[in-house]
Every structure is written in structure tokens, then in C-alpha cells.
Amino acid sequence: MTISFQLAIFEASVDGSLSPDAARDIFSGVMSEMLPDFGLRSLGSVTLEQPPNEELPKWKSKWHPPPLPVMVPTLQRITDIASLLCHCQLLGLDQHLSALISKLATEAKMTGVGDFPSTFLPFLKALGASLRKWNIEVQHSAFQGLFQHVMSTYIERYIQQPPPIFKDWTRETVTCKPDCKDCEKLNEFLANPHKQAADFLGGASRRDHLQAQVAGTGIEAEQRRKYASGSAYALFLTKNQRYIEIGRKAWEKRGEETRNSFRDIESEANLKALLGDAYAAIISGTLPEQRAMHYVPPLGTSANTANRLPPPGPRGIKRKSVEMIVIDDWVVGKQEPSLSRSLFCCVLFGVLSLFSLY
Ligand SMILES: [Zn+2]
């Protein structure tokens, strides 16, 4: 609701039904109200992500509960937030823009990497298109910092570093619940640089659990009798070189997927300007050097104080002196002689505060 209201205020200033100064006053006031809860996945219209419609193997339901539903923003919301950032820039609200961008950069760090394709990647594409539409200069801007940080966060967490090429039989360990003794033994075997093969005795479900833990890694797994003459079954695991090939191929595939996603963003956004000196590294799916990155101030610093934003400064025409009037608990700026506009602001603030209660 708040975002669509702000977009309407901006449009009113563009078509001339509201003066640019009035638009900035209202816009910045509403912005201060919404900043604490601002984010791609909070406020406004979001939809519940559908859980994958696949039958989980038996062991998985025992050890891993199904994932919780995830809130994903609609395309409309993504486009609205992109427009909102551009309007901040066009109205000269630099500190508001800086606060919004810090919030988004922080949100990107907290967002699960699997959620990027439905959140931050389409958002960057929409923002790139919006910046182009308004012909906004992006080099050395806060927008450059946002694109660089979100895209390098994705590279760091999704593609990751190339898998190690082990020169002995050491293999990466698995994760499980803390008191799983079977995985403890499995990890001892995986981390042992001198041991190529081992067998694990246990009931069928425990053997299945361990086999599932190494599935897809290239480690050979076979369940058979421990001794030809006995009745006890064991899981036999053997490390081999395929493990390294599989890890390498999976890493290359993640890199290719990421480069495709970035090319899709570039179809709408001028990434060369938006990524600046970090362009060549990021577009090829590698982390850029720190000195190529535009600084994004963390939330709460003096350069970016989300909850104590100043009123907008003078821009373009000389502003008239402002006196403060107090109506109940609301303090609003009033510019003589336009009393009707001040009252208009009061009504709008009242309506918004009511909405914020819901
Ligand atoms: Zn386990």
C-alpha cells in the first residue's frame, strides 16, 4: 500500500498536479515511516512459495523436516521497489536512497541462496530497466554498490570456490543432526586421508541413511552380507577419483547457470556502467577485487541512519521558510501560504499510520 502511494505521489509531481517540493516532503515523510520494515520480502504483496512437489525418500522425512513455506515477492512488487529507488534519486533524496540500498544489501546477505532466482535476480533486472528508462547516471552511485554487492554475494554463496583436488583419500564430511552416531563414524572415514574403503554394520534404515548421505558424490556404495556365511548386512563404501570429477562438474554447472542469469539481467540493465571496475570479474562468475567495489555504508552509520532521516534539503528553486505545527501527536512541516497542502499532508500521514497498524 505504502509503495503504491509513493509511486502515485511521484506521478503527481511529474504530471504537475503536485509541486516538486510538496512531492519531496510527502515522499520523504512516508519513506521514514516505512524504512524500518523495508525489504523485498516484507510489506506489500507477497505470495507463499510452493514446496517442491516431489516424494522425499523415506529416510529424509525422518531426519529432515520439510522446508518451511517461504515468502516470495510478486513481480509487481519487485517492479514497484525498483521504481521507488529511481524516484528517490530523481527527487534528490540521497540519504533515503542510501538507507534503502543498505537495507537491500543486508537483506541479500540474509536471504537463502536458493531464493535469489525468485527475489534478487529479477529485482536487479527490473531495477536496471527502470534506471535505463529514467536515464539515471549510475557510475560511482549507490546503485553501483547495490549491483556489485548483490551479484558478488550470489557468486560467493552459490558458485563458491572450486572444489579442492584431494591428493590423498580425504573427502568432505557430511552434515546431520548432532547426535547421529552413524554419521559421526561416516565422517571419521571420510576425513581419514589413508583409508579408501570401510564397511558399516547396522539395520536397513541406518544403512539407507548413510548411503543417502554419500549419494551423488561418486563414492561407491554397496549393501551386502558382511561375511559370505553370515546373515548380517553391511554398507560397503569405497572412495575413488570420480568424486573429484563430479564435484568439479557440479561447480562448473553452477558457474554456467549464474553467468546465464547475469546475461539475462544484462538484457535490461547497463551492467558495464553498473558494475564499473568489477564488471569483468562478476560477469564471468568470479569475485572482484575489493578495491573495485563501491562502498555501501552499513545500516545505522552516520552516512545512513534509517530511523532518523533528515528532511529533504533545498533543490532547484529556493525554499520558503518552514514553521512547525503540531496537531495532536503529529508534527508536520508547513509552508506558507499553502495551508491546504499542509492539511493534505496531515490527512495522508493519518491514513498511512492507520495502514501501518495492519
Ligand atoms: Zn546421520
Compact overview of the structure:
The chain is mostly helical and 358 residues long. It has 13 helices and seven strands.
Question: How far apart are the termini?
Answer: 11 Å
Radius of gyration: 28 Å
**Portion in helices:** 40-55%
Strand order of the largest sheet: 3-5-4
Q: How are helices and strands ordered from N to C?
A: HHEHEHHHHHEHEEHHHEEH
Would you write up a description of this structure?
The longest helix has 25 residues. The termini are close together. Helix content is 49%, strand content 10%. With 358 residues, it is mostly helical. A hairpin with a 2-residue loop joins strand 6 and strand 7. The C terminus is likely disordered. The chain has 2 domains: 265 residues, no CATH class; 58 residues. It is elongated, with a radius of gyration of 28 Å. A 3-stranded antiparallel β-sheet has the order 3-5-4, covered by helices on one side. A two-stranded antiparallel sheet has the order 1-2. It binds zinc ion.
Looking at this protein, list some descriptive labels.
single chain, 7 strands, mainly alpha, disordered C terminus, 358 residues, elongated, two-stranded antiparallel ribbon, binds zinc ion
Write the SSE topology.
Blueprint: H1 2-15, H2 20-34, E1 46-48, H3 58-63, E2 71-73, H4 75-90, H5 94-110, H6 120-133, H7 142-159, H8 181-191, E3 197-201, H9 204-213, E4 220-225, E5 233-238, H10 242-266, H11 271-275, H12 279-283, E6 322-327, E7 330-335, H13 339-356
Antiparallel strand pairs: 1-2, 3-5, 4-5, 6-7
This protein binds zinc ion.
